[in-house]
Request: fold
Amino acid sequence: MPDSILTLDGVGVRFGGLKAVDDVSLCVKRGERRAIIGPNGAGKTTLFNAISGVIRPTSGRVTFEGRDVTSAPPHRRAAAGISRTFQITNLFPSLTVRENMELAIWGLVARKFSFFGSRKLTAGEDARAKRALELARLGARADVLVSALSYGEQRQLELAMTLATSPKMLLLDEPAAGLSPSERIIVADVIRALPTDLTIILIEHDMDLVLSLVDWVTCLSNGRFLAEGAPAEIRTNADIQDVYLGRARPHA
Amino acid sequence: MSTPLVSALPPVDRAAPTKRVLVWLCIVLAALLALPLLLPGYQISIATQILIFSILAMSIDILAGFVGRTPLGHGAIFGVSTYVVIYWTASLGGSLWVGMGLGILAATLLAAVFALLAIRTSGVYFLLLTLALGMIVWGVCLRSTGITGGENGLRGIGRPGFLVDHVHFYYAILLVTVPVTWIIWRFVHSPFGLTMRGIRESESRMRSLGYNVPLHLFLAFVASGFVAGIAGALYAVFNDFVSPSTVQLSQSVSALLMAITGGVGTLFGAFVGATAIILLENVVSVFTARWPSVLGLTFVLIMIFAPEGIVGRARILLAKRRRRS
Reply:
């Protein structure tokens, strides 16, 4: 499959006796917008961790761009082009927005080992940082401490940092979690404005938001693959309605 | 991972006060240069000691303040350098300059070994592991009587002629301290220094951005050991004697306390902390032999009332005042 960027082959993650992810296989095409949905505890974030390398799958295989990355550590996968945001905001709070961007940009270049050099961004790096901040609508906040940003702005910075490295695949773990409706609209617009050749996998609970953003949906339940399909089919899928709302009893 | 010793310090205002900072640095430097004119012989050697321990405290600050890992074994790294210098010059009859190079090398290598074992841990586990490693060094120095002289220690061969005079020696140490401080300052403000602070704030985020976190921790620890080695080599020339008490736990504790008193993450706080602790030690020793008890009490009081240290506290107050005006 030359056009698939990510392939999961029977991936399982087991914590002791608990199978958090159980034999999940899926295939994501280059440039695809994919959502992973499912009720709480379905194993969505664990699956993200297995893809980004935070935890190693206990079974199965993860292939990214034709390379087996099942046992590669997170920084190798980042170098291969996988970038992610975190469900719980994970930034550098006592550094400024600009310093957060510097760390995002230098993650994949040799400059991070400059022991006595200047911290001044090169013209190219500066342009990239500015563009990513503009995309995430944080252009005017570069010199502010991250701990002084609003929660919504911190979520926007999460996005800006993943964009600064020009990744090939973006994993967004509930980018709109905890945001007000107006902030959700900003995040949705930011995601829509991302380059079309960028593959995006998205976990989100807000169905209206997620179904308007993606072109294919995978649903997990209790760590297992449940269903997949286009957003229109997902809205009407009986199995998915069952796991979200409880099984309908006849003549209830 | 929680890092209790690092408080949320306000950022150094990069745009405004560079000129003011430069003026202050010049004043401090002028004061340090003029100090021998004011102090008689013995007291100037206390100033020399303060400079040497400031370097040691800065080496601890690299880890405690910037990486967010508090070490309690730096006395051992420092003391091994001292041992090597004195063994090389007194027991083997080698040149002092080569000996100092070898001492720094030994400290750096020891730090690399410590780092390999300790960087997997953080928080209090890192503290305890470095403490245990330091104790091993102390035990080895105590028992290898054939090399280290055991409890009797090793006596040096005396300072070279041009350094015998207290004032000359003070200037020589100052001549080393200033560029070393400048180099460490560049180091913690370099791109690599920023990655150290990033690790302090969030290791998982650093990993997902593509950083090999253990490698950065290792390099930071080795750099810190190198600096501690410089301090240890200078101390060999200063003290001209080394015994297991140079590598023992209380050395690590008092050096860490200097870094904390000054303020971790401030770098220059090391000078303030070293001055405060060494002066206190000298004053207290006039009245009582219970210096370790006083040291412990000081530690407790500082952790309760000013965990951000003297320089850290000053910086917070300054930031508050600037915001008000």
